[in-house]
Amino acid sequence: LPPELLSVDPQAAWFESATMVQLAPPVVAKRGQVLKSAIAGALASGISTAGMHPLDTLKTKVQSGGKSFIALVKELPNVGARAMYAGSVPAIVGAAASHGVRTGTYEFSRQVIGTVSPNCPDALNQSISSGLGTALGTALRIPCEVLKQRVQAGRDPNARAALASATKGKGVRGLFTGTSATLAREVPFYVFGMVAYEQLKNHAKGALQRDLGPWETILVGAISGAAAAIATTPADVLKTRMMTGAAVGTLPEVVKALVAKEGVGALFKGCLPRALWIAPVGAMNFAAYELARNAMFEEP
Tell me: the pLDDT tens digits for 50-69? Predict the structure, then answer.
């Protein structure tokens, strides 16, 4: 027995030990880490979205039922840079805000799950944390995405006009058009992408027997992003059709009508520009986020 219990009645000591319930230590997430993760995620996503917006514009035009990717590329000299950056303001604001929330929630959730259930497999912890963070971040992004895509597709001349059109007759609900399709794209994309990124990074570190350099980390992020982009293209096509007004109805109704009219191949429209756009964005969202986060965590 501990020395402090030697003078205690043995019956009382036995009763205390038999009825004592062990409690896990309280879960305390490190607020500094969560905040820095959110800032790193917002910066990474905002910068990558700004740089790759022209490819996103091409992708949206292809998916909304317009010309083919090759035809649009040939017309680029006559289009001008301003048209390629149509809808960039809501795109950048929405991406930065949503990704900041997503990465902050991801970091917070990983810490909580790791404390509450230390034996939880890393892949499961990453999947749950990424799914939760994506769901919360997407709720912020959807209104900005609606405005951005209406401008990109040429439905409205600017974000203000898009706001008026989207809310006309529907109110605020119009800003959440395509929510089901967006969640069907965003949650699998980030869960698949984040788990692929973490697993590829760990395998690469094991094969090389050292930590990855910055460019190697960015390459892993690009591969993970491109793979996730291809896998979720059908949901992205449906989201674009619903948000731009090119298709009306519930998600199952839109899928049925699209496949009946244009065939299954229509679900993969814009796959090439989406992969080309998401690869560098994935490098920024996954890899540059981690590099920026690690830089902020370094002790001065």
Answer: 888 888 888 888 877 667 77
